[in-house]
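Pasting as-is:
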Amino acid sequence: MRRAAWALAETVIARMPSPVPGRLAVLLVGAGNNGGDALFAGAILRRRGMAVTAILADPHRAHLAGLAALRRAGGRIVSGDSVSSDPIAALLGRADVILDGLVGLGAVPPLRRSAEALVVAANAAAGWRIAIDLPSGIEPDTGREIGAVFHADITVTFGGMKTGLLFAQSAGDVHVADIGMAPEQCQPSIPYDTSVMTDADVGWLLPQPGPTDNKFSLGVTGIVAGSARYPGAALLAVGGAVSARPGLVRYVGTHAAEVVQRWPEVVAAQDVPAAGRVQAWVVGPGIGIDGAAAALMRDVLAADVPVLVDADGLTVLAQIPSLLADRVRRGMTTVLTPHDGEFARLFPDIDPAGPAGRLGVVRAAANRSGAVVLLKGHRTVIADPGGRAFVNTAGSPYLATAGSGDVLSGLTGALLSAGMGGLEAAALAAHMHGQAGQRAAAAKRAGASALLDFLI
């Protein structure tokens, strides 16, 4: 707890304009250890010269050692029983920083009335808002915000990332503080709940050519994309695949001339049987949803290699679910990459806004379909049928543009063809795609085609 308090105090001081002495910190203190963290942090801040006032939401259950430490340091303690009173609101309005220590990870929202009133008043204040471990009012396992929620500028969490923080809109910037309980020092009896790809993962997971490799050993990616209505889908999906540096990319579709003109290294074919050997297929971007598209889907899904299905291919799959069921029976890896609308067509009885949260929803879809499911969004979630999951934390609003998903599909397909598993390929591609979006945003380059310049 003292280590957690030091991490909180350092976060506060790092963000306080000089001079720090005389600044006002207000602590929202609930029962238990979360409130204790706030009180010990307040004692440290008081010794640094800040004025510190703790508002106790439940005076009879406050952390006794933390209270004693704050009193010894000269901090002020008031009861939050009269949270509707003007003095409490005025105090929060004068605060340079407000620390939220009302409830911890064991709490289930919505908040009690006394804590809710304090959160509403704190959200109306102008000072910095820093949450301790998890903003009060957020469901720890899902990140759902139920009722009043503390709107944090920063959340300081301890030991390791909490799943809910990956989804919570009100968490602000999340800082994981090492307080001597790092996950790698533990030996859990079950796997971690959720994983996150990092920049370091790209370096050691992304396949690299070696001296004995050739174009076939580095992966051959097949792309079926594009139509008269959506010619750009072919160029974007192929571009995503080429950017991942596979040994060879084969293209099947109506825009072979445009594709080969842009990427002369690509080998084009008239149909799937004539394309030749591939290690993975990508099918769906811009192919349409008519009988010809269904025929393409049948040819691709009959192959005994990993297949990624995106865009129009997902709509066809929703119309002919037996195509996927047959692949599952044969034990073939399939990756589905829907956005919310496509997800609703594929899984009409799974509510994306249900109580299980976004992570639980994707896990349920993967388990039911027997496929790896990548649900696109602000926090893209990827899960496999066994329940393993990744949450993608890289990205930018620049990715919310037509054709962005086509680039992601081609990139993921290239990683599949190099031999990566479906879950890992989709998670790594989502992270690389997100990084490209961040770089495009920094360079003020709009449009999905700009992503191709920033993928590697």
